[in-house]
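lol ok so funny story. i was supposed to be doing the assay writeup but got distracted and ended up predicting the structure for this chain instead. priorities right. anyway since i did it might as well share w the group, maybe its usefull for someone
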Amino acid sequence: MRELVITSLFITLTVCLFGQGAKEEKKVPTTYDRSSLTVLFVDNQTENHWREAREKISKIVFSDKYNNNNLETLFLSPNTASKVPGDAQNEIANNLKNLRVAKKVVAKWYNRKPDGTMDMGMVHERGRFTATDADFLLAQTSKRGNAALEEFGNRLINLSYILVLDLQSIKTMAEAGVDKTKGWQANVKGYLYKVNFNDEVKFAFYDTWIYDDDTEEVKEQKRKAFDALDIPIEPVLQKSLTITSSQPESDTGLGLLFKPKSTEQLLEELLQKSYDETVYRIEMDVEEFKVKTAVYQTRPLRAKIGLKEGLQTDTRFFVYEYVYNEKTNKAEPKRRGVIRAASKSKITDNRKVAAGDMGTSQFYQVHGRKLDQGFILQQQNDLGFEVSLGAELGEIGGGYGRVDIRLGRLIGIRSLFIYLEGGFDAGDYPSAIDYSLLGEESFTFLRIGGGIAKGMQLTRNLELRPYFGAGVEMASNDKNTEDNAPSAIYIKPGVNLALNLKHNFQLIGGMGVYAFVSDAESENAGVIGPWDSVFQDRTGPSAFIGIKFGF
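and the output, tada:
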């Protein structure tokens, strides 16, 4: 019966997942231009712990991926976001318009001074910085040379975005009800807007440009025209997240595994994560934020992107080949594989102006067919966790589930995971002990554990993942009380092998070994005896078979 249920579940999920992936993307842009971000925080002066948080916002490190268009202040006031439930996006937009933030952003692009004069210095500088090696080499073949690169900056102005972050419900872990843990928790809402610097607005803006030979009367007219100018913004999307920055207290067993941090350091981390995670989630949905480039080299896979594009370990990219379709008479993208950025040491620091010798970053393939030079990479951020469901077979068996959480973005090592696991089983264990302590012979077992795992790509579609973890198994039945229920601690080394059916769906099998390192013990009965004596032979290897899908 159990095998039938597992098989039915597998078939249902397979059909659903393959059905969802049947549609191929109709168009994948082949060009990528650098966007800019102006970041503002809602000034929640009445929010609990806001004063402590506000003082540390200036320490946030903003992503190298975006041109930094931050203004003189990082705060948006007055605070209206929390007063209009369900309409905060529009209310904040009205605030931005009233404060003329979009016009200040464009004025920054053109280095507008108090007397109204402007220049193209920043536009040209950002144009040169955004240009790729291919752009540089092409420019050298033209008469205009570097001047052609400088003009790239003009097309970047309409990629100006404003991100407003609203931190609410800032709590210590104690206030959040989490014991033996120090740190912070907060809800963060991110509101993204785009500056609409369309042709009509652009021409009206250029009409306010003050030239050296303008008379004082003309200059004054242009200053007034600038003051009256309205540059619109468009709401793009909003994201809501719960962010935590914490660690176990030093007097707990787990606390010994971490380098101690002060509550101030953890608050700084909370604010940094509020920005980082909001931007990461936004990149999933905004096409202009997704990096696109070509495969520069195979064996190993390399591309000419790096820290300038905000590349981090395990960042996911889909790889496309444009194939000619005779029916439509057009070249259409076909996804050929999925790759991820390699460890931090293999990511190039390309934060410089292109000169034809920009470095490359290394990637590794996790799905698909053989890739060729020139295929198009498109950034596709994922949530970074995988869920495995199935059954364990052995003396310790039954239903099993596991969640693997990818650590690459945090620590710079590719394919490194922490995992949480759980399992349940039932069985009869007669005559091993005096069951007057436990109630009866039939027991239900529940296992909860976790550990660390490291993925190793054997082929493009086959991954080996050794792991090591620990956990606790608890036994219960209908007659014994919770105080009588025995438990014991186990360690578990093992290895899983996953075969791709899709890039986010695998068949998985493996082998783990349960080794109990503590005796069976209950609150009332105390130490009862070795676990594999209390429950005879309940130890040793267990095979696993199931399915895994990624998010």
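Residues 1-24 have pLDDT under 50 and may be disordered. DSSP finds 13 helices and 23 strands in the chain.
back to the writeup now i swear
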